[in-house]
Write a structure and sequence with these properties.
Strand order of the largest sheet: 2-1-3-4-5-6
Low-confidence stretches: 1-17
Order of helices and strands: HHEHHHHEEEEEEHEEHE
CATH class of the largest domain: Alpha Beta
Mean pLDDT: 89
Number of helices: 8
Shape: globular
Length: 223
């Protein structure tokens, strides 16, 4: 039997009728915002499966937008998320699509940030408010938001991964989990590292100086 915690047994503290459709949806939006790394100003939100067919009645649309605004699952303003989004300059549209053989409570975000950053994030709400981010810009990943997380876009060359892990070891940052995926040999690759310690700005700055690293983003755990 796997490990369980109070969150698994009792469910999340939240606003809304469904942990999967509401609390999980808020967390998916919040994680997409963190991966974007800045305030979103435009978004296309593509709903899949039961998110598409029954989500509106559960407040899923409201919850996804609330997460993009940085709200937590227990925020009393979730029902006002579209109004607040308009006030903050976030322009969004909803679409529905078959996103393939994935969990029925899934969504794909196409986001544009205020400083011009763009990201595509695919994630699923798998029950009890728990989420899994499955793709970032078409790279396969598995991020649950439980750990401080490094997202590093780099060229697939020998030594890049070693330089990153050595730098983290020197900074006394322990790696809990790690994934690397790539487009093809020698092309762009995405490195995901979940760590036991928060990655501060000084470490992030050193990572960005490593040759052939195009982008490095530190994501704090979800609430």
């Amino acid at each position: 039997m796997g490990k369980s915690n109070v969150f698994d047994l009792l469910g999340p503290i939240m606003v809304g009728p469904s942990s999967s459709h509401t609390a999980g949806a808020v967390r998916l939006g919040a994680m997409a915002r963190k991966i974007l790394g800045e305030e979103p100003i435009k978004g296309t939100i593509v709903l899949h499966g039961s998110f598409a067919t029954t989500g509106k009645g559960h407040g899923t649309n409201l919850a996804l937008v609330a997460g993009l605004l940085g709200m937590a699952p227990d925020d009393e303003r979730i029902s006002e998320a579209p109004k607040i989004a308009k006030e903050r300059g976030l322009d969004f549209v909803f679409e529905t699509a078959d996103l393939g053989d994935i969990h029925p409570n899934s969504v794909k975000f196409n986001l544009l940030g205020k400083n011009g950053c763009h990201v595509q994030v695919l994630g699923s709400s798998i029950g009890g408010g728990t989420i899994v981010i499955r793709e970032i810009n078409d790279f396969q990943v598995e991020i649950r938001g439980d750990y401080p997380t490094l997202v590093i876009l780099h060229q697939d060359l020998p030594g890049v991964v070693a330089q990153v892990t050595l730098l983290l070891a020197t900074a006394q940052i322990n790696i809990a989990h790690m994934w690397v995926s790539r487009e093809k040999k020698g092309a762009q690759a995405l490195m995901i590292l979940e760590t036991d310690q928060i990655i501060d700005d000084s470490v992030l700055g050193l990572l960005r100086k490593i040759p052939r690293i195009y982008q490095a983003l530190a994501i704090e755990p979800l609430e």
